[in-house]
Specification:
Elements: H1 2-32, E1 40-41, E2 57-64, E3 80-82, E4 88-90, H2 99-116, E5 120-127, H3 138-145, E6 150-162, E7 171-181, E8 187-192, H4 199-204, E9 209-217, E10 220-228, H5 237-256, E11 259-265, E12 299-302, E13 310-311, E14 324-325, E15 328-333, E16 336-343, E17 356-362
Parallel strand pairs: 2-5, 10-11
Antiparallel strand pairs: 1-8, 2-17, 3-4, 5-7, 6-7, 8-9, 9-10, 11-15, 12-15, 13-14, 16-17
């Protein structure tokens, strides 16, 4: 009987230690969590002096770098899917496999951007000092490569050490978006997007936001908006709220007569591309849809679906087998003339995304 009591006591002590550890960790995460303020002005570092001219043609590119982790054979633990056979699939890794791989993928992405040579660059999932990217500083690599551009870094994922998944923890994250411009920016503003306020969800999701840049063009402004909307939002509740906020901003700018371009990772099918590309996989559950009917009057998507911009990360990438779709691209106001819109085929060599490109002029 004494032995049984001792065993029970040890078990109870172990359970108590686990409960205290988990509870203490949850309290630690909650205590260190803080959303960034809405309507936050941001500095434009090394802001150029060149001004926009109404009779010129300009170009912009958007590229989600996936924190430099996503080589073609990289899979991510949060991504799940199904093969056409019904077999379930799930990604493996919680962080990049090495710092050198992150740096190789980042420099590869930079080379793609340099070949295009755009006037404006929107980037998403750029890490500065994160466990998941082995503390590689992607921001510094980018600013060194584009030293003639003004830029802002917009934090949207800042967390203390995240223990999930237990076999490959995501760790501490310091990540965000970047907006780069060859022309003088008169205003740079971070707007917070609606996200879940549930204590667990808010700790493990991004501090979603958009970045609004204003550039003077005669008596008006070119308003550029860098976006990275929610993906893992069951029921799409917060994605709808995010779109509603974006639409309110678009309507306000339309009333002012400004030129507007929204670019980035919408995490929605924005090109009616859900079934456009050959695959051995089923359409993933996370995929939602946006079309021109979801936008205010006077705005439309500038997208194409000859080339996909996003691949599933539940399996390694294999062309015509892995599920792909178009979630990256642009929205333009009707006073913007689209000269060319295209997605750039990299075969997902450096990221789980391909870049989207837009050439435009002012009407």
């Amino acid at each position: 009987m004494k032995i049984v009591k001792k065993i029970l006591l040890v078990v109870l002590i172990l359970i108590g230690i686990v409960v205290l550890t988990v509870g203490g960790y949850a309290i630690y995460l909650e205590a260190t969590y803080d959303r960034i303020s809405d309507f936050l002005p941001l500095e434009v570092e090394q802001n150029p002096t060149d001004q926009l001219q109404k009779d010129q043609t300009y170009s912009i590119i958007t590229y989600n770098l996936g924190f430099g982790a996503y080589s073609p054979d990289f899979t991510f633990f949060m991504d799940e899917g199904k093969m056409l056979s019904g077999e379930k699939t799930k990604g493996k890794y919680g962080k990049a496999r090495s710092k050198s791989e992150v740096e190789t993928n980042t420099t590869g992405s930079i080379d793609v951007l340099k070949q295009v040579n755009p006037d404006f660059i929107f980037l998403q999932e750029v890490d500065r000092n994160s466990t998941r990217s082995h503390h590689a500083n992607q921001k510094n690599l980018i600013t060194s490569a584009f030293d003639s551009y003004g830029f802002s870094f917009i934090s949207n994922f800042h967390s203390e050490f995240l223990m999930y998944p237990l076999n490959d923890p995501h760790g501490r994250v310091d990540s965000g978006m970047m907006s780069l411009s060859r022309y003088q920016v008169s205003s740079s503003l971070r707007r917070s997007l609606p996200i879940s306020t549930h204590w667990l969800n808010k700790l493990f999701d991004l501090d979603r936001c958009i970045h609004i840049l204003r550039l003077k063009i005669e008596e008006k402004e070119l308003v550029l908006i860098n976006v990275h909307l929610s993906a893992y939002d069951k029921g799409g509740v917060y994605r709808k709220q995010q779109i509603n906020l974006l639409n309110t901003i678009l309507e306000d700018e339309q009333e002012k007569g400004n030129y507007v371009i929204v670019g980035g990772d919408f995490n929605h099918d924005i090109a009616d591309s859900a079934s456009a590309f050959k695959t051995n996989q089923q359409q993933p559950d996370w995929l939602s849809f946006l079309s021109n009917s979801d936008l205010p009057n006077g705005y439309q998507f500038a997208t194409t679906k000859e080339v996909p911009t996003c691949r599933g990360a539940d399996v390694v990438y294999e062309k015509d087998k892995t599920y792909t779709v178009v979630v990256d691209g642009f929205i333009v106001s009707d006073n913007i003339e689209v000269i060319e819109s295209k997605n750039i085929q990299t075969d997902f060599a450096y990221s789980d995304h391909n870049p989207a490109f837009l050439e435009f002029r002012f009407r």
